[in-house]
Design a protein that fits this description.
Layout: H1 2-11, H2 15-37, H3 39-47, H4 58-69, H5 76-122, H6 125-130, H7 133-174, H8 176-192, H9 194-223, H10 225-230, H11 234-264, H12 266-284, H13 289-335, E1 352-361, E2 364-374, H14 390-398, E3 405-410, E4 413-414
Antiparallel strand pairs: 1-2, 1-3, 3-4
Helix pairs in contact: 1-7, 2-5, 2-7, 3-5, 3-13, 5-7, 5-13, 7-8, 7-9, 7-13, 8-12, 8-13, 9-11, 9-13, 12-13
Length: 416
């Protein structure tokens, strides 16, 4: 239930566009079902079957009534033309849905990057200072595109689900036995091949965690490369980085194996069900030949749609950690947002003072009950040995750090 709620929450990233995409996908699924219906009269014509022997199907009868209403002869040319028209329309609606999905995904990627950059620049200096150099760049270049792609795969999951529903409904109209077989196939595939989805999702989380650490560490190393080279520390850094790279390789290999297992083991399972179904239909149930053929076509399409649905769910799960990571980072940046008081006024003469100010970096106390007043006129210089607190003094005046105790004021008015 939580997973379903999560799927719908992603659609609400762009609700109006999602409605357009899902509608086009649903129409494409219906058009595919109608195109398969058009194959039934094709088989009747090719096999020379009379009307009395046609299979009982509500939708098939609607198809025949439509031809009668349009005063079209039920000949091979007209039926094949209708089949091609439905296939073309299905392709057009699918293309519109997927192109628009790509456009929306690109827009979401842009909005996520904009939100991250804005939140990063508005956060407190201490938050920015504590971030590793490569972390923010990794988020912008790697995490965000993966996170935004969840919208794409959510739309693909719903599109495949619509297609499966339409085809199963069509199969149910043609043969209850075939529809039951289709449902059993779906359950069997998700139970057996679902193991590969779980493996893929587990390795995706692992790969994301290691990749984030790898990129952050590389950023830190490049930032201090001069010192590393000067002190010949490369031999200590290289094993650490290569160990993470090897772990990424291992996770990637397991993901590839899970993906290929899902794809290539699917085919024998599908044809196992097809062979068993054909045998039962011909030898046991004595279903008409044209019905067996059309059911076989629908069954294979249902199996393919279910396979695509599984693949989309697998890719969705592989990219989910990046979306969760992005949201976590954004929430942390929002919490640490700098509070700016917009009360700017022009003051000709003012004095800046620090009263009983205490400040420390952890256990390293820099100022202890510092009292100082900076005059309103003249040039002020601060001199002292390295590490005495000259830069820290300026940072406190700018508000980059919060004092532990005491007060900073301008013209006797405390400031934050």
């Amino acid at each position: 239930m939580n997973k379903l709620r999560f799927f719908f929450s992603l659609l609400f990233l762009s609700p109006s566009r999602s409605v357009y995409i899902l509608t086009a996908s649903f129409v494409a699924g219906i058009l595919e079902g109608v195109s398969i219906l058009a194959l039934m009269p094709v088989l009747d014509i090719i096999l020379g079957i009379q009307d009395a022997n046609q299979p009982t199907s509500i939708f098939y009868n609607y198809f025949l009534v439509t031809f009668d209403f349009l005063n079209l002869d039920m000949n091979l040319m007209n039926v094949l033309s209708a089949f091609l028209m439905f296939i073309f329309l299905k392709s057009v609606f699918s293309m519109l849905a997927m192109n628009y999905t790509g456009i929306v995904t690109s827009q979401i990627t842009f909005e996520m990057r904009s939100e991250f950059v804005k939140s990063l620049l508005e956060s407190k200096w201490t938050t920015i200072q504590n971030m590793k150099t490569g972390a923010s760049m990794n988020t912008l270049s790697f995490d965000i595109p993966k996170a935004a792609s969840l919208f794409l795969y959510t739309c693909l999951v719903f599109s495949s689900f619509f297609q499966v529903l339409v085809l199963l409904f069509l199969m149910l109209d043609i043969s209850l036995y075939a529809a039951s077989g289709g449902l059993l196939l779906g359950l069997f595939m998700f139970l057996i091949l679902g193991v590969f989805i779980q493996i893929s999702n587990k390795q995706a989380v692992r790969q994301w965690s290691i990749m984030t650490s790898f990129m952050s560490n590389m950023g830190e190393i490049l930032k201090g490369i001069k010192v590393i080279k000067g002190m010949n520390l490369s031999k200590f850094m290289t094993p650490v980085i290569l160990k993470e790279a090897d772990s990424i390789k291992d996770a990637n290999i397991k993901q590839i194996m899970a993906k290929h297992g899902l794809v290539y083991l699917r085919e024998p399972i599908i044809f196992l069900f097809v062979c068993v179904g054909l045998y039962l239909a011909v030898e046991t149930l004595s279903i008409a030949n044209q019905t067996v053929l059309i059911v076989a076509v629908v069954f294979v399409r249902v199996a393919q749609a279910m396979g695509k649905l599984q693949s989309d769910i697998q890719t969705f799960g592989a990219n989910k950690p990046f979306y969760e990571s992005y949201n976590k980072q954004i929430n942390n940046l929002i919490i640490s947002k700098e509070d700016f008081v917009n009360n700017e006024t022009e003051i000709d003469n003012f004095t800046i003072g620090l009263k009983d100010v205490t400040f420390a970096y952890g256990s390293n106390k820099i100022f202890d009950n510092l009292n100082i007043v900076l005059p309103s006129n003249g040039l002020v210089t601060i001199e002292g040995e390295s590490g005495i607190g000259k830069t820290t003094f300026g940072d406190l005046l700018l508000g980059l750090y919060s004092i532990d105790e005491g007060m900073i004021y301008i013209n006797d008015k405390p400031i934050k």
